[in-house]
User: Which sequence fits this backbone?
């Protein structure tokens, strides 16, 4: 039955053998008979596993984990997968026929993403930093997609696929069989088996994390819904891990909600999420419009689902659900008093414990509000309003939604409200593919629908910083990238904004319920593509910088002529500045999606438990620097446009950067790991105000912070534990290419005068480069909300290219033995 999908790939790990058998089981319900295919995998290990203690930092990072076992025998034929990029909408397709294969050849990018040999030729060995830089560009340029952007996996979180698969299951929909097979393979490949995180058989919050109840219960459930049987040895191992953690009763809030939707647990286990919160007047300090955009757009559909207490209709007759009720808990379900476990949570999941304030609120809601005051007319009004806000979110993003956490939730709400045949349900079902990403490890769910705008803007800047943007051989690549950014700029307003009381041109940082509480967006850029619909401060700023870098270049052969056409008009660039200026907070710093609207005290209401700093927007050195440098660059080209406002903005912003520096000279990064990342941005900000190593004590402290942590091999390596702990944690695998490139760029921005430590770092980058020009994947690079890591695989190209080029410009492009080129 699976003959067209199976591919028996040879594995280089001869110590592990995997054997699969297919079993057809007929599940009969009162209304139908249907067949489900189950995979039965028996895995035999022929080598001893090395087990480490729980909590000990793992010795392998993302991309370098050497699993003792891979579910590689039960997979699709990787050479049949193709990535389609339709104006930045990236979707993977499995080709079934030979005719399809002939009509759609495999690209170099396809091969690279899938871990197939790209067959790129060896390049002349680089003897100088600029030669290494150009070798990197030659390889990386082959990964540019037809619309002009670069794609990549944006994986890492292990709680995304479960929400999708549960939603599809309870709405009686399925992915294609190739997609399901590869999701199974991916989840198994991310399991903590062998020497990965102690080998206890569970899953963590992200791919490098220790096992948790959230990760283990959700991924176990996902595999069962996709047809993996409970007697699979890997599943038995996972259950053992889950039981050691206390069972699914000790999962966080989000896990309990999804299991209640599925009918595995009862809704009594879920702490209240009343939609009446959305009826609070805007002036109330805890009103949801003041929350961080991700928090409010996730808790919006969650509150709607909680209020409806919707449960999978076939839960009591579905044998898989009935079995899960037995498999996920250490007690028989009939003995469980569900309400007693509302606040139960494993220590491994409890990164941000519920505050006493939240516990009192939950007590009030359960004992007083719900039984005594929650009248039906108020509930109906609240549900109507949350449903309206959900519809506005779908309209503003063409059903792509903010991210893959709220997207399946909105999908389910549409199913509940409008039924299986509704246009909204069909559109959501189609949009699912925007988040799925195929790799050599299987099919994952990206953290957004891509990083298209972000990586493309950084790529342009890298070549410009390296002094290579005028080279003829890179002109077409850069022009396509510029045209992509032009195509992805928001040129329309959010739904309801133009008729709202806060509409103005240029916009201000105010919002209203008529606009869905959204920040204005015309002129901005998002993180991924225009469809997703959310403007981001630093994404807008980096796109402006990239466009100006190219559009202000003069032709080296004829300086009277521009080298690149004016793709983004002056008016469009002014729109972007109009979006950035109202993003500044009262502190002078800049947040991500919108100005801060609520107090940090709202963290007392953080119910997510597994994340920190999630309730409101914060000031970020990364976002602040991006806006400072974009405004300065724009002012140099268009000095008369809102000049005084931009000067005020930058003065206040850089002053915030100064005050945000720690005593040891560092800055804490919130969007990548961690001190190396933020320090690069902060020093770039200070340079715009003339602060460099020679004249600034704070810049000297920042440089000392980095130099004190340089490894013997010349590089820097920082663990994701830095993000969790707020303290520098060295990477267990030593120096990392990306961290090293960030520090090189930081020291060069600071105009650090001594060449020797920089040359040592450059030697490391050159030594890690492969003969075809690429750098291999090392540790995971990104983070959000302090505790969850996420991948930025293109960083290993973008930032080494930038750092090597900057070094060559500063110190000359000479062989490291002293010969000048």
Assistant:
């Amino acid at each position: 039955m699976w003959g067209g999908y199976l591919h028996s790939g040879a594995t280089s790990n001869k110590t592990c053998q995997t054997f699969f058998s297919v079993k057809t089981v007929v599940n009969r319900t009162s209304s139908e008979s249907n067949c489900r295919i189950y995979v039965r995998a028996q895995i035999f290990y022929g080598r001893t596993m090395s087990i480490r203690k729980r909590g000990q930092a793992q010795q392998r990072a993302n991309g370098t984990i050497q699993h003792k076992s891979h579910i590689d025998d039960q997979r699709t034929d990787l050479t049949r997968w193709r990535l389609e990029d339709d104006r930045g909408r990236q979707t993977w397709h499995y080709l079934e026929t030979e005719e399809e294969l002939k009509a759609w050849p495999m690209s170099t990018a396809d091969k690279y993403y899938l871990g197939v040999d790209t067959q790129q030729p060896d390049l002349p060995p680089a003897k100088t930093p600029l030669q290494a830089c150009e070798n990197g560009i030659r390889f990386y340029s082959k990964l540019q997609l037809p619309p002009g952007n670069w794609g990549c996996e944006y994986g890492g979180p292990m709680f995304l696929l479960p929400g999708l698969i549960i939603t599809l299951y309870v709405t009686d929909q399925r992915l294609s069989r190739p997609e399901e097979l590869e999701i199974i393979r991916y989840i198994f490949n991310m399991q903590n088996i062998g020497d990965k995180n102690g080998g206890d058989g569970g899953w963590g919050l992200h791919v490098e994390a220790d096992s948790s109840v959230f990760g283990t219960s959700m991924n176990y459930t996902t595999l069962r819904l996709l047809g993996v049987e409970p007697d699979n040895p890997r599943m038995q191992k996972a259950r053992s891990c889950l039981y050691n953690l206390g069972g699914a009763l000790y999962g966080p809030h989000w896990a309990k909600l999804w299991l209640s939707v599925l009918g595995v647990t009862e809704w009594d286990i879920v702490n209240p999420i009343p939609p009446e919160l959305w009826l609070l007047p805007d002036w109330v300090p805890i009103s949801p419009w003041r929350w961080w955009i991700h928090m409010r757009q996730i808790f919006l559909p969650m509150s709607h689902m909680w209020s409806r207490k919707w449960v999978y209709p076939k839960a009591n007759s579905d044998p898989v659900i009935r079995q899960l009720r037995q498999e996920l808990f250490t007690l028989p379900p009939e003995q469980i008093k569900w309400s007693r476990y509302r606040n139960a949570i494993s220590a491994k999941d409890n990164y941000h414990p519920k505050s006493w304030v939240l516990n009192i609120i939950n007590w009030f809601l359960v004992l007083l509000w719900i039984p005594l005051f929650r009248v039906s007319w108020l509930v109906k009004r609240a549900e109507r309003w949350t449903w309206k806000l959900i519809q506005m979110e779908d309209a503003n993003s063409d059903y792509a939604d903010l991210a893959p956490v709220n997207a399946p939730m909105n999908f389910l709400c549409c199913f509940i409200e409008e039924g299986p045949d509704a246009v909204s349900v069909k559109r959501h079902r189609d949009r699912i593919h925007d988040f799925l990403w195929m790799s050599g490890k299987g099919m994952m769910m990206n953290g957004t629908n891509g990083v298209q705008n972000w990586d493309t803007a950084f790529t342009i800047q890298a070549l410009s910083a390296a002094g290579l943007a005028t080279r003829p051989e890179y002109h077409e690549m850069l022009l396509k990238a510029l045209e992509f950014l032009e195509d992805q700029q928001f040129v329309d307003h959010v739904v309801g904004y133009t008729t709202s009381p806060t509409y103005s041109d240029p916009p201000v940082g105010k919002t209203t319920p008529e606009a869905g509480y959204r920040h204005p967006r015309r002129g901005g850029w998002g993180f991924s593509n225009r469809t997703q619909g959310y403007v981001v401060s630093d994404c807008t700023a980096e796109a402006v910088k990239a466009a100006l870098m190219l559009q202000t270049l003069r032709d080296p052969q004829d300086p009277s002529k521009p080298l690149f056409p004016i793709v983004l008009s002056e008016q469009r660039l002014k729109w972007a500045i109009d979006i950035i200026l109202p993003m500044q907070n009262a502190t002078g710093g800049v947040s991500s999606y919108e100005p801060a609207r609520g107090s940090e005290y709202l963290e007392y209401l953080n119910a997510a438990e597994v994340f920190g700093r999630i309730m409101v927007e914060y000031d970020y050195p990364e976002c602040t620097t991006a806006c400072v440098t974009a405004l300065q660059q724009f002012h140099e080209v268009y000095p008369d446009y809102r000049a005084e406002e931009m000067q005020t903005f930058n003065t206040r912003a850089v002053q915030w950067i100064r005050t945000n520096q720690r005593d040891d000279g560092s800055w804490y990064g919130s969007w990548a790991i961690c001190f190396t990342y933020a320090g690069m941005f902060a020093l770039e900000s200070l340079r715009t105000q003339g602060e460099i190593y020679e004249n600034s004590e704070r810049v000297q402290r920042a440089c000392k912070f980095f130099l004190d942590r340089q490894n013997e091999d010349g590089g820097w390596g920082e663990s994701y534990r830095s993000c969790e702990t707020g303290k520098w944690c060295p990477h267990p695998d030593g120096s990392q290419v990306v961290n090293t490139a960030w520090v090189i760029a930081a020291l060069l921005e600071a105009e650090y005068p001594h060449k020797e430590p920089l040359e040592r770092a450059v030697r490391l980058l050159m030594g890690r480069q492969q003969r075809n020009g690429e750098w291999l994947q090392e540790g995971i690079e990104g983070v959000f909300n302090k505790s969850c890591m996420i991948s930025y695989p293109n960083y290993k190209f973008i930032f080494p290219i930038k750092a090597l080029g900057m070094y060559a410009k500063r110190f000359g492009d000479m062989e490291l033995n002293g010969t000048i080129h």
The first helix runs from residue 98 to 103. The radius of gyration is 26 Å.
